[in-house]
Amino acid sequence: MKIVFTPDWFLGHDVLIEVFSFVILFLFFLFAIKGYNLSKKKNLFYLGLGFLLIAVAELSTILTKFVLYFDTSIVQEIGRIVITQKIVKTVDIFYYLGFFFHKFLTLLGLYIIYKIPSKNKIKHFVTSSEFFLTVYLLLLVSFICQSYYYFFHLTALFLLCLIIYNYWSIYKKGKMINTRILLTAFVLLAVSQILFIFSGLNLLYVTAQGIQLVSYIILLILIVRILKNGKKKEQSRDSI
Amino acid sequence: MGRKRNKVEIVYDILRIIQKNGGEIKKTHLMYKANLSHNQMKLYLNELLKKQLIGNSPDNSNLIIIAPKGRDFCIKYARVKEFERTFGL
């Protein structure tokens, strides 16, 4: 079975895109956690947690692909440590673990981001039975994805559609440009998931990676805007 | 009626009022503008002085001035507010 769908000429470029995604996601995590430290609002903490989980998921896939593309001897070493049975190919275990964590943490992060704007008892949602049930289901999906890769993209697409619906409602209320930018980034991420479903075709895989890169560039623009606007608004208040 | 402000929001309001007033303000004026009781204001001012977000004017002991750290706090808080609004939090 194919582990990655990257065409030969694109090997390494996809890792660079994932490194960039990781940096942007980590920046959002830092921003949210700094905000939480300042205002002590629980939903900022959960938003940060959501972004952190997706960032760690990216890191997991970066490390796995890095080893897969550039150093097979390390893989064999790690593989031997993970499992010494002859029945299972040791190297595969390492890949499967890496990609499993990528899938599970991405889906969990998206689920947390989806849950935040609903504000329904956000304080207790991580300890609620609904949360544990969802984690269990996401674990199941992540296991199934090892055999049927498109299940992951379908689930991610579903969660992204729910997130888009949430932010569309928020945008309709406030008509804030930043929310529109955020919405655009999520829509592009959803489009990339549709294309990833057909990753078997090299061109679609590369296009999906490209769209994902554009969506993370948009998220970077959003961070810059938030930093600039916050300062500008504060200074304009002084001059009133 | 507006909702009850939390501690950080009150601190932000106090600092913003001082900033809007040109960086300095009389304690009594601040008390009215920030909508605080005398005791509340004393507590907040002591804390802000301790954290070096504000300072006492060297010329007039009844006058308080905003410190550079206080201005930084206002900018950081405004950014957090912008972030929260973006995500509808």
Write the layout of secondary structure elements.
The complex is a heterodimer of chains A (240) and B (89).
Chain A: H1 13-39, H2 42-70, H3 72-82, H4 90-115, H5 129-145, H6 150-174, H7 177-197, H8 202-238
Chain B: H1 7-20, E1 24-26, H2 27-33, H3 38-50, E2 54-56, E3 63-66, H4 68-86
Antiparallel strand pairs in B: 1-3, 2-3
What key phrases describe this protein's structure?
heterodimer; A: 240 residues; mainly alpha; 8 helices; globular; B: 89 residues; Arc Repressor Mutant, subunit A; 4 helices
Report on the structure:
The complex is a heterodimer of chains A (240) and B (89). By secondary structure, chain A is mainly alpha-helical. Chain A has helices at residues 13-39, 42-70, 72-82, 90-115, 129-145, 150-174, 177-197, 202-238. Chain A starts with 12 loop residues before the first helix and ends with a helix. Chain B has helices spanning 7-20, 27-33, 38-50, 68-86; strands at 24-26, 54-56, 63-66. In chain B, helix 1 crosses helix 4. The interface between A and B is medium-sized, with 33 and 21 residues.
The CATH superfamily of chain B is: Winged helix-like DNA-binding domain superfamily/Winged helix DNA-binding domain
- The coarse overall form of chain A would be globular
Could you say what the CATH architecture of chain B is?
Orthogonal Bundle
What does the radius of gyration of chain A come to? 19 Å
Number of domains of chain B: 1
| Percentage of residues in DSSP E strands of chain B | 5-15%
Q: Which term fits the overall shape of chain B?
A: globular
So how many helices of chain A? 8
Number of helices of chain B: 4
Summarize the structure.
The complex is a heterodimer of chains A (240) and B (89). Chain A is mainly α and 240 residues long. Chain A is 80% helix and 0% strand.
